[in-house]
Amino acid sequence: xxxxxxxxxxxxxxxxxxxxxxxxxxxxxxxxxxxxxxxxxxxxxxxxxxxxxxxxxxxx
Length: 60
Hints:
Order of helices and strands: H
Strand content: under 5%
């Protein structure tokens, strides 16, 4: 392993903290995606549709 010298603890801590933040963001995005998909399914089940699902060429 490489020797970081007297700053090893600072460097390792910084990398671990950055990795933790990235992991938290990935989990947060995945959970939000699932929540948004569920909300979209609920809206579509209640009869509300997306504008993009309408036939093209027809004004809304």
